[in-house]
Each structure stands twice: as C-alpha cells, then as structure tokens.
TrEMBL record:
The keyword Ubl conjugation does not apply. Coiled coil: none annotated. InterPro entries: EmrE-like, Small_drug/metabolite_transptr, Small_multidrug_res. This is Guanidinium exporter. The chain crosses the membrane at residues 33-50, 57-78, 84-103. It is a multi-pass membrane protein. Keywords: Cell membrane, Membrane, Transmembrane, Transmembrane helix, Transport. It is found in: Cell membrane.
Length: 106
C-alpha cells in the first residue's frame, strides 16, 4: 500500500507543477488553489509512504516521478524542447530510481 501512496504522490507532484504553470505566478485563482491542494495531497501521501519505506528511496522516487513526468508534460503541453540529450537525461533519472529501488530491496 505504501508503494501505491508513493506513486500517487509522485503523480500529484506532476499535477501541482503543471497547475502552478497555469497559475501564472499565482495570479489566476483556480490554478493557484488547485496547486496548493495538490501540494498538500502529494506531501501527505509521501508522508504516509515514509512509514515503512526508506526516506532516501521514497524521496528519490517521488522527485523522479515528478521530474520526468513534468518534463514530459512540458514537452507535450508547452512545446518545451525534446532534444536527444534531454531525453537521455530523463532516462538517467529513471535508471537512478530503478537503481535506488533495486539496492533498497535487500
């Protein structure tokens, strides 16, 4: 169950980052409120996952999901660059998350 909390927390991190972009510096009410609600929900679920998961693993997975997911949505929604080097760097993040998970299993 704690892994589910962690994955959902990571997805909510993506959601709040995108909502913050749409808030235009917290000048638009609905995206601003949504950002705050999503941040609270994301951190609450991260906190629940930390009851049993190691902090280094959980935080790495949470930020990795958020980083890669937000970068992908930035490419798809906002036309941000998707160069080979950038995609390779995202792959390195995913590899790092996998490495943390594998090394924490023992």
């Amino acid at each position: 169950m704690n892994w589910l909390f962690l994955v959902v927390a990571g997805c909510l991190e993506i959601a709040w980052a995108i909502a913050m972009k749409y808030s235009e510096g917290f000048t638009k009410l609905v995206p601003s409120v949504l950002t705050v609600v999503l941040v609270i929900a994301s951190m609450s679920l991260l906190s629940l996952s930390l009851k049993t998961l190691p902090v280094g693993l959980a935080y790495g997975v949470w930020t990795g999901i958020g980083t890669v997911g937000t970068a992908i949505l930035g490419i798809l929604l906002f036309g941000e660059p998707a160069g080979v080097a950038r995609l390779c760097c995202m792959g390195l993040i995913v590899a790092g998350i996998a490495g943390l998970r594998i090394l924490s299993a023992g």
